[in-house]
Amino acid sequence: MKIFALGGTGKICRESALDIVQFGDFKKLTIGDINLTAAKETAEWLNHPKVDYAYIDVNNKLESIALLSEYDLVIDGTTISLNAASTECIAHAGCHGINLNGFGEEYNFSEVFKSHGKIMVPGFGMTPGTTNMMAVYACDQMEKVNSVRVSHGAYRPIAFSGSITETTIYEYDPQLPGRTVFENGNFIQVPPFARPREIELPQPYGKSIQYIIPHSETFTLAKYLAPKEVDLIEVRGTWPKENMELIKTLYNYGFFNNTRISLNGHEFGIMEAIGEYLQKSDKGKTTELYGYSLHVEVEGIKNGQLVRHTLTHTHPASDGSISDWAGLRAYTRNVGIPMGIAAQLIAQGKYKGEGALFPEFVFDPEIFFNELAKRQILIHSKEEQIN
Prior knowledge:
Blueprint: E1 2-6, H1 13-23, E2 28-33, H2 36-46, E3 51-55, H3 61-68, E4 73-76, H4 83-93, E5 96-99, H5 110-115, E6 119-121, H6 130-139, E7 144-155, H7 162-171, E8 180-183, E9 186-189, E10 197-201, E11 206-212, H8 217-224, E12 232-238, H9 241-252, E13 260-263, E14 266-269, H10 270-280, H11 282-285, E15 291-302, E16 305-314, H12 329-347, E17 355-356, H13 365-374, E18 378-385
Parallel strand pairs: 1-2, 1-4, 2-3, 4-5, 5-6, 6-17, 7-12
Antiparallel strand pairs: 7-15, 8-9, 8-12, 10-11, 11-12, 13-14, 15-16, 16-18
Helix pairs in contact: 1-12, 3-4, 6-13, 7-10
């Protein structure tokens, strides 16, 4: 299979590409980016005879479609703001596709993917992606699902890249309609920092207060669990403590409204300026603890009993004891590897369906967990009866 890594120079997507190089069976893997120099450097870093690089700008649709039509599958590491354009190009090129974000516009092209007999899976990293698989694993064992609470800790700098900065600004937009919980059959919009809940993550992360975040699992799990009449779905998240303190202060002072201001003849959104500063500051690009931690708690009826099924995940330490997981790579590998695995499952025919589909409907969780384990990413499961 010929694979194109779109936005492949990013710190996360390059980890997806590396996973394909290390574990996959492919004819060709092309690192594609608008920055040709960075694409060349990434290809050289991967150091494989079947890896090359190419220039691509998804805003030039005709050229992008022509280029991508030479490939079978595209892993899309572009930013949220580009996902509609990138998905349109992938769809019309007649490729399979998968991306990291999963915020919704990808589904507009479902019929195009179907017409080519291809699949598009939006949102397959740690969360969304791995969390969807964890929830499906627990829910599929139950006759009735009462609640699903997805939580995660993303321990990374607040602005180590442009796409991460964009994600931060997006997720804490006070007016964002996608920040919802699913409760008693309805999607309810909530503000930033809603519904605080203490979550205990595996060490070295420990306990923290987490808040509702705008992630696609709320919508995709609601659809998947409709036959089981789920009552509640909540998705929470946290970043390092200092990051959360900064974000809460910016929110309290209204900065996340991203008001347009004029300074010395230049007009810009205030959060855009803050994001630009953070990307260029040491504080914005470093943090004390690196990595990722997931926590999925499902309550429901299994064999006539009320049970709670809790799944968590662990990975190698970021302390440098394993060089490939040192520092920031303990975060970027966690997010990038699942997309690399999913691409390989598609290449192997280990998926279901055509068109743009929610992750829950596409992959077998146990197959996916087994692949994670080969990469030292482990899923832990605990079930207990509730009296």
